[in-house]
Design brief:
Elements (H helix, E strand, L loop, with lengths): L7 H10 L46 E2 L18 E2 L2 H4 L42 H9 L4 H29 L1 E7 L2 E7 L4 H7 L9 E3 L11 E5 L2 E7 L2 E7 L4 H8 L7 E2 L12 E6 L2 E7 L2 E7 L4 H7 L9 E2 L11 E6 L1 E12 L3 E10 L3 E5 L4 E12 L2 E2 L3 E9 L4 E8 L13 H9 L12 E2 L4 E2 H6 L11 H15 L14
Parallel strand pairs: 3-6, 7-10, 11-14, 16-21
Antiparallel strand pairs: 1-2, 3-4, 5-6, 7-8, 9-10, 11-12, 13-14, 15-18, 17-21, 18-19, 18-20, 22-23
Helix pairs in contact: 1-4
């Protein structure tokens, strides 16, 4: 498994796998040499040591990774900070640009004692040309002036890697934040690298809907120690005092939803217990708040507090009994409103049957044998009879208008038939055309066809009364008829009665 550069695990792995620094090069105790010459004659092993000096480990020049929280565990779930130490002697010769303010190497326990291994017997080796022994050459080899710069050159890449890992680890740890996430009242602590609330919720695979509440709001920057609260929205089909509403709430109980929606729940009727949990998919909730209703009954006023669903139920709670046809000013099955005043109506009554006449109709038939303006009734009409039943009511002692219930026809009416003349009216009457009708008209009415006497009884040119006029076949009033018709009717009257109808002016007919 690999780790991204700069991650804590990569830093720890790099520190653990870096080879130790060796400023003197690889050590080989068996390097070929010139002939060895012992310093002195020896007889026993105790008197003489090995012909070469034992290898002395150099001072600790290594870069050492020291985890601050114990031993390195590659399976730790949280990032840990890596700390790099440098030996003070190495920082003096580092190239320019390399940071030298690394912490000093703490006091560490020395290397453990190694088990004693017996040395092999020394083999005399020839001296070199200068007459020096191998020990002198080894000492010279260890002190070659060119060794230290080579060691620094080998150390530089390792130091740069450690510095890079230390810086990446520090940045990695700095972006790690510890926050608390509270979802529906369940809180837990998280380590996150998210920059804001939306990124944290996305990392937690939490889908937030339009009716869900997130505190602090979307896009809010995260800081260590922040607490993010998520409350899911729940749909509620609310029937409040008979009116239907579709609302959303983030409360988890019925009581919390009522408080959030501003519904007065004291004394109210609830279709679901107020301590019940609201499921995520929502529920149907019927709420009837307590209202003040006043009843006027039997001359008394009664005011009650009720959460009844109907007026009828509220009347029962008020102790009022409805009997027979008794009712209320509003429908008994309607919903009682706050502050409403309802009247109780005491109704008594019975039924009454009446016979009512039915008017007959008139049928008019044209008759060419009769002169125009002449009508003759050939069948007299008769009225019929209808029997009607009415309901009589008295409301709170006051009689009401009778209400028609049923009706039946006892006798059908008989139609009246009238013949109407269509024959043309004659313009003259035999034996009367030679008379002075203009002189008579001037004497009776001043020659005015629409003249009427002061009493209103007589009218027209010849001052007919209505009865005489209609007896001669005229219609309506004589003063309304044309002058020619008035003269024709006057001639007919003269034939039957002479000049008698005009006792004063009749002499004008002959003079």
């Amino acid at each position: 498994m690999t780790h991204a550069p700069g991650s804590p695990r990569a830093a720890r792995r790099g520190a653990a796998e870096a080879p130790p620094y060796d400023p003197y090069g690889p050590y080989d105790p068996y390097e070929p040499s010139d002939h060895y010459t012992a310093y002195d004659t020896y007889d026993t092993h105790e008197q003489h040591r090995a012909p070469y000096e034992p290898y002395d480990a150099p001072a600790e020049p290594y870069w050492i990774y020291q985890p601050p929280l114990g031993l390195y565990d590659p399976f730790l779930p949280e990032p840990r900070e890596a700390v790099a130490f440098a030996h003070p002697e190495l920082t003096d010769d580092l190239p320019a640009g390399l940071p030298t303010d690394l912490p000093e190497l703490p006091d560490l326990p020395g290397p453990p004692d190694l088990p004693h291994v017996p040395r092999q017997a020394a083999v005399p080796r020839p001296q070199d040309d200068a007459g020096e022994g191998t020990g002198t050459r080894r000492a010279a080899r260890r002190k070659r002036p060119g060794d230290r710069p080579d060691a620094l050159r080998r150390l530089l890449p390792q130091a740069l890697v450690v510095v890079f890992l230390a810086g990446g680890t520090t940045a990695f740890i700095a972006s790690d934040k510890t926050v608390r996430l509270n979802v529906e009242g369940r809180s837990r602590t998280l380590h996150t690298f998210a920059d804001d609330v939306d990124e944290l919720l996305a990392d937690e695979h939490m889908a937030i809907g339009a009716h869900d509440a997130v505190t602090p709001g979307h896009g809010h920057d995260l800081a260590p120690g922040d607490e993010i609260t998520v409350r899911y929205g729940r749909p509620v089909a609310l029937t409040l005092d008979g009116r239907h509403h579709r609302v959303w709430t983030t409360a988890r109980t019925v009581a919390g939803a009522l408080r959030q929606l501003g519904v007065r729940a004291e004394g109210a009727y609830l279709s679901t217990d107020r301590s019940a949990e609201l499921p995520r998919h929502g529920l149907d909730l019927d709420v009837r708040t307590e209202r003040t209703v006043t009843f006027m009954a039997d001359g008394r006023e009664r005011t009650i507090r009720t959460n009844a669903a109907t007026v009828r139920e509220a009347i029962d709670q008020a102790g009022i009994t409805l009997r027979g046809q008794d009712t209320t000013s509003v429908h008994p099955d309607s919903f009682p409103r706050e502050g409403q005043t309802i009247s109780v109506m005491r109704i008594t009554g019975g039924q009454e049957t009446r016979e009512v006449p039915i008017d007959f109709t008139t049928e008019r038939r044209d008759d060419p044998t009769l002169y125009k303006g002449t009508e003759v009734v050939v069948q007299r009409g008769e009225k019929g009879v209808e029997r009607i039943t009415y309901a009589l009511r008295t409301v709170n002692g006051v009689k009401q208008k009778p209400q028609r219930l049923v009706s039946e026809t006892v006798r059908q009416p008989r139609t009246q038939i009238v013949k109407v003349g269509t024959r043309a009216m004659p313009t003259s009457v035999q034996g009367t055309d030679h008379l002075n009708w203009q002189g008579l008209a001037r004497c009776e009415a001043g020659g005015r066809p629409n003249a009427v006497d002061p009493s209103g009884t007589y009218g027209g040119l010849y001052q007919f009364d209505v009865r005489t006029w209609q007896g001669l076949g005229g219609k309506g009033r004589p003063q309304d008829a044309p002058a020619s018709e008035q003269t024709f009717r006057a001639k007919k009257l003269y034939v039957t009665r002479g000049a008698t109808p005009w006792p004063v002016c009749g002499r004008k007919l002959h003079g």
